[in-house]
Amino acid sequence: MGRMSRRAFALAALSTLATAPVATPAEDAAVPAPGAAAGAGRSGTAELRGVWIATVVNRDWPSRPGLTASAQRKELIAHLDRAVRNRLNTVILQVRPTADALWPSPYEPWSEYLTGTQGRHPGWDPLGTAVAEAHARGLELHAWCNPYRIANHTDPGRLAASHPAREHPDWVVPYGGRLYYNPGLPEVRAFVQQAMLDAVARYPVDAVHFDDYFYPYPVAGQTFDDDEAYDRHGGAFTSRAAWRRDNIDRLVRETAAGIRRVRPGTRFGISPFGVWRNASTDARGSDTQAGVQTYDDLHADTRAWVRNHWIDYIVPQLYWHIGYSAADYARLVAWWAEVAQGTKTLLYIGEALYRAGAAGQPAAWQDPVELSRHLTLAARYPQVRGHVFFAAKDLADDRIGAMARVVADHYRGPATPPW
């Protein structure tokens, strides 16, 4: 047989996906002041320094829909150059925000956040350009996908005529003013993997990245209607909650296997909400009083994913300040470090740069040193191998100089991701 190009091999592997078998916010706590020792904590050589670039509702980029291709590209390049100036080494770009695409996908329509009209070609290839330009700057590019969110509204008629959610209305569940794909349907799970892995097949992305949306966050007084799917597929489970967790576990395991099959060496990471379970619910949980627990409310067993090495890295979103009584950053870093200890899953911490200096945030977040204190504290734990900042717009604004302080205290030299 003649030699196949790497892309041809990847696309061929992708075609087997659908039939492949399952492989399954108080006072600051006392912490050391940031300074020279903190800056040397990782020797400046092997840590992930990342930033999320969110495209949903044009949060970070593009600044608004309908910009010309050249203007969109210019804005994107500015984000990449800013990452380099801040001595970061990774950008996590949201390329599938709402069951759509920032590349010429054969499965899903072009994102409305590019042109203002879902399905309209933007006149360029944003993901392909992002990968090439990131790599040219020594940055990793992680392709951030949201698996199940379809739309931030409940009107299927507003979707592109060719949208899979219109072709398969039985896949769709309206909930909390949004549309979601039903995670309990095997055909949905297969489709979303196929759609996401198309990007892996086409481009040398360094990783695929999921955020914190699996089953949707609870909305008081509303029920996620998956009765029919549960009746068809949940018979082997002791409860609907156990069945739902299994659905998400399968998505995680199958996606990991699909990535390995389509482009070996590409990694898989997830950035969940920062609390798995409160200790009052489960003795193995964290010393927190969080109103949301991923295991119970999002049906995402994030602890198991780490302990079983189903994913290459995890970035819990620890978006609270040090000393916050309900979810103390310091306590959560310690908890996640213990979870990751002895595993092959790399632990990075998701940091709330967006809160620094923002109106309405607690006093701790008005202190430009708070974020730097986070990195100083986390440096106590060898399991913490880096940090990711939310998000790119806030990196650009840096309202009170919190990120500048992080760079001065901790990022004085270059670093490479610890793979």
Automatic annotation (TrEMBL):
Keywords noted in UniProt: Signal
Signal peptide coordinates: 1-20
Keyword Signal attributed: yes
UniProt key word Signal: yes
Domain of life from the UniProt record: Bacteria
Domain Glycosyl hydrolase-like: from-to ranges: 47-361
InterPro entries documented for this protein: Divisome_Glycosyl_Hydrolase, GH, GHL10, TAT_signal
Protein name, as recorded: Glycosyl hydrolase-like 10 domain-containing protein
Organism (species): Streptomyces cyanogenus
